[in-house]
Specification:
- Helices cover about 40% and strands about 20% of the residues.
- It is an alpha+beta fold.
- Strands 1, 2, 3, 4 and 5 form a five-stranded antiparallel sheet that branches.
- A hairpin with a 5-residue loop joins β1 and β2.
- α3 runs antiparallel to α5 and α4 packs across α5.
- The protein is globular and about 45 Å long.
- About 30% of the residues are buried.
């Protein structure tokens, strides 16, 4: 299983409407196990992350007004990518883990930028 990264908008009645994604677009925020081994890890928390660690216990819903903060958190984590790759659980080499982290953060970042552009939010579940 993989964590899905979705962009959503709120309907006038408050309901969440997840936007369609073309079939050829890959929107994975990591493996399901990353909820605790990466995003919810003590090391990622110690860096000051507060959005992605939510995944350790629940799905993450970032409302439209919070998307800029999510982008700042992604930038923070991107700046510490080598350390995160070294200090979080991985079944691969550090280099492979770093590459996967980079890909997943880029997907989250791209989705957040898309959401920002339309006044939407980001759901990772």
């Amino acid at each position: 299983m993989a964590l899905s990264v979705e962009v959503f908008v709120r309907e006038p009645d408050g309901e969440m409407r997840i936007l369609d994604v073309p079939d050829d677009v890959y929107r994975s925020g990591g493996f399901e196990s990353w909820r605790t081994t990466v995003w919810g890890s003590q090391f990622v928390r110690s860096l000051g992350a507060r959005y992605l660690p939510v995944l350790a216990g629940d799905d993450l819903v970032v409302e439209a007004g919070e998307v800029p903060e999510l982008l700042r958190e992604v930038a923070l984590l991107r700046g510490r990518l080598d350390e995160i790759a070294l200090r979080t659980g991985r079944p691969r080499t550090v280099e492979e883990h770093r590459h996967q982290l980079d890909v997943r953060l880029r997907i989250i970042e791209d989705s957040a930028r898309e959401a920002l552009g339309i006044g939407g939010g980001v759901l990772i579940w």
